[in-house]
């Protein structure tokens, strides 16, 4: 039986616990194309940088972080302000329980309040699943309403193999001729 899951905004103090979730994806999978585990200080800086503009949230079960999700700039030029890249990671033994969906839906609600319209996900992809990569992330995003919009062939090399990368997108609303400005996360009361 699973206990209740709560979601809150991450803090820099969560860096060590969040990094413990992310590290196995670096060392054991091609889900991320990152090779080396960042230091806790570097990871804390990543959280700090994200929280200047976008949400970075964690899911808690029995007071331990079991997953996290965040948004980051899709591109840094002003015309892209209404588009973000979304990311979600779960503790390995917590996958398949609906936590990723719960995190992403919470993230989407915050992003809507920020006036974000386009969600973009950059996903490692393979035609031949192996011990380091299957296409679970693609299927997960499809179930949440994302559609594939780009496919890059053999652009990531890890564990002695070449992997593809795809981009998937989801729209949170219509694209008005005069969109409301994006509101920084620091100006919203959330969670």
TrEMBL record:
InterPro entries: Acyl_CoA_acyltransferase, GNAT_dom. Keywords: Acyltransferase, Transferase. It comes from Desulforamulus ruminis (strain ATCC 23193 / DSM 2154 / NCIMB 8452 / DL). This is GCN5-related N-acetyltransferase. Coiled coil: none annotated. It holds the Pfam family Acetyltransf_4. Residues 5-173 form the N-acetyltransferase domain. Gene3D superfamilies: 3.40.630.30. It comes from the Bacteria. Signal peptide: none annotated. CDD domains: NAT_SF. One of its GO terms (molecular function) is acyltransferase activity, transferring groups other than amino-acyl groups.
């Amino acid at each position: 039986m699973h206990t209740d899951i709560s979601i809150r905004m991450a803090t820099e103090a969560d860096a060590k616990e969040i990094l413990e979730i992310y590290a196995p994806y670096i060392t054991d999978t091609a889900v991320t194309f990152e090779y080396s585990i960042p230091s806790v200080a570097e990871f804390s800086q990543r959280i700090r940088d994200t929280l200047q503009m976008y949400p970075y949230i964690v899911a808690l079960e029995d007071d331990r972080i079991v997953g996290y999700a965040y948004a980051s700039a899709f591109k840094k030029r002003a015309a892209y302000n209404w588009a973000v890249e979304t990311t979600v990671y779960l503790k390995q033994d917590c996958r398949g329980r609906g936590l990723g969906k719960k995190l992403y839906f919470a993230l989407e609600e915050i992003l809507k309040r920020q006036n974000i319209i386009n969600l973009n996900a950059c996903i490692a992809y393979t035609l031949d699943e192996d011990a380091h990569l299957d296409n679970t992330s693609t299927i997960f995003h499809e179930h949440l309403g994302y559609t594939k919009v780009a496919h890059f062939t053999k652009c990531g090399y890890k564990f002695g193999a070449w992997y593809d990368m795809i981009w998937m997108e989801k729209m949170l609303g219509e694209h008005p001729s005069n969109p409301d400005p994006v509101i920084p996360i620091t100006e919203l009361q959330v969670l």
